[in-house]
Design a protein that fits this description.
Layout lengths: L1 E8 L8 H14 L4 E9 L1 H12 L7 E7 L3 E8 H11 L3 H16 L7 H14 L7
Parallel strand pairs: 1-2, 2-4
Antiparallel strand pairs: 3-4
């Protein structure tokens, strides 16, 4: 089994949670019986993720996470996360930044696995799974 998950910090800001994000995404992949995957998580600024959102999804605003599935077999994809938005959302949701980064990384992984969040029921299912797969610093 080869579940390669990497994190690249292209935001220029310091952060914590690299190991936790990797472990959380690997946990989600294993739970869905994925045997081989390459997932790149890239941390960006709001400005940069807004550019991607506008360029590829025609949405002219910053968002928290964007996922690009590149291959199905083996699973390969890129997950872009706004570190600035993750920090704001962590404060808003009263969770740690590490927990919010893990949630966003898992959310992106679930999209790679075929989940969609267009409907309320789908969003609720994804939120349940996000909570299930988040790895806390104490469990590493």
């Amino acid at each position: 089994m080869s579940l390669n998950v990497s994190v690249t910090n292209a935001s220029g800001a310091r952060y914590r949670g690299r190991k936790e994000m990797i472990a959380s995404v690997q946990k989600a992949l294993r739970a869905h019986r994925v045997k081989h995957a390459n997932v790149d998580i890239v941390l960006l600024t709001d400005r940069r993720i807004r550019t991607l959102n506008k360029q590829y999804l025609q949405h002219d605003y910053a968002t928290d996470v964007i996922t690009f599935p590149l291959e199905d077999q083996p699973l390969y994809g890129e997950i872009y996360v706004s570190l600035e938005t993750a920090r704001r959302q962590a404060n808003e949701y009263h969770v740690t930044v590490v927990s919010e980064l893990c949630r966003l990384a898992v959310h992106g992984a679930l999209h790679l696995l075929g989940y969609d969040d267009a409907e309320q029921a789908d969003r609720e299912q994804m939120h349940h799974l996000e909570n299930k797969y988040i790895v806390s610093p104490s469990s590493l």
